[in-house]
Amino acid sequence: MASALLDRPVQEPVTAPLAAALTALPSAAAAAPVTVAPAARKRWSLAGAVIMLAAAATAVGVELSQANLAGVLARVQPWQAAAAAGWILLSLVAAAYNLTGFSAVRVPLWRSLQAQLAISGLRVFTPSAVSTPVVATRFLIRSGSSASDALATAGAAQAAQLVATVAVVAGLTAVSGASGPGLPSPATVGAVTAGLAAALAIAVLAGRRSERVRRVILEARASAARLARHARGHPARALGGLLASAALTLTHILAFAACVAAAGGRLPVLTLAAIYLGGATAGSLLPTPGGIGGVEAALIAGLTAAGVSMPVATAATVLSRLVAVWLPAIPGWWTAFRLRQAGLL
Fold first, then answer.
1. Chain mean position to CA 5
2. Entry pTM
């Protein structure tokens, strides 16, 4: 199913706003068939996107109405804001290394960096949980990877970032000397184990009943084996991907910390890391483009709960979103256009 999704024409929309952005770009594969969605489907997609954006804008507006945002932003420390922008730039480089380190196909770092910029640009049109893996997988396929290997590479990069995030939080806990999150309870471990076992059992049963599902499972297993051989054959590249995963999380946390400091807030780094990761999780779970609305609400709530005043929390959140989302989106749109012209997206 994943291969079928990636093999469909780029012109087929995931969401109406993303379709408008991509269809404005010249096609790199003129021979590819064009599939036009029914008019009713387009109308429903557009209506859903408008409703999600309206709800997100309402949530942000409610939060902003509770603070003298203009007065606080006027007192923002420019050098701290510049530091936040610098951390975001480094995060793009780390994301590029994160992807190339697990790819068996040699992808130039500058091309991978362009792909990360394109992801930043398209993220404002689609949910964050969709834009990153889909665009990264599409980029790898157009760079010469098979669909299954591209999926395995993107999945390995995402899994490495999850593991690295846990390691970064543990490292910050050790450095700060504070008490970090405890070990999961036996009930939580049991629930996760049971869920994974159930998913595996369903996959096995589906593979026995469906030849197509069995082929997908065998192809995914073969891709995972090739990925493991690549890691064994190129340990330095795999290690670079792991370190880049940790750097990606750390640079985003430091950028958020710089935005809070620029607005006049003062909190321990471990607390800021927990607030930022909570906001990022909210953005991944909500189906709004770029997590708009959910991320802002989560960050403001986390900062105020930690003792930051509402005006400062709101200003820090707005500054963080401007630096982390909207600033990279501007060159990201142009980069997506160029990659589309080059046939890499």
1. 19
2. 0.71
Other CB atoms closer than 10 Å to residue 104's CB: what's the count?
22
Q: Report d(CA 339, CA 345) in Å as an integer.
A: 6
* Total count of residues recorded for the chain: 345
Tokens of 76: 């923002």
d(CA 36, CA 45): 13
Residue 193: both structure tokens together: 């184990």
Residue 288 DSSP code: S
Tokens representing 315 are: 């200003």
- Give the pLDDT of residue 25: 42
Packing angle of the helix pair 39-64, 294-305 (nearest 10 deg): 20
pLDDT of res. 135: 84
Contact 116, 336 (CB under 8 A): no
Residue 124: count of CB within 10 angstroms of its CB: 20
The answer to whether the beta carbons of residues 270 and 180 sit under 8 Å apart is: yes
Q: How far apart are the first and last CA of the chain?
A: 20
pLDDT for res 86: 93
CA separation (Å) from 329 to 15, 112, 198?
18, 16, 40
In order along the chain (345 residues), what is the average pLDDT of each group of 10 residues? 41 44 43 49 57 55 55 74 92 88 82 88 75 83 84 83 85 70 56 65 66 65 71 78 90 94 89 90 74 84 90 88 87 87 83
Please enumerate in sequence order all residues whose Cβ is within 8 A of that of 228, keeping only pairs 6 or more positions apart, or say none.
Answer: none
Q: Where are the alpha helices (DSSP H) in 38-108?
A: 39-64, 69-73, 78-100
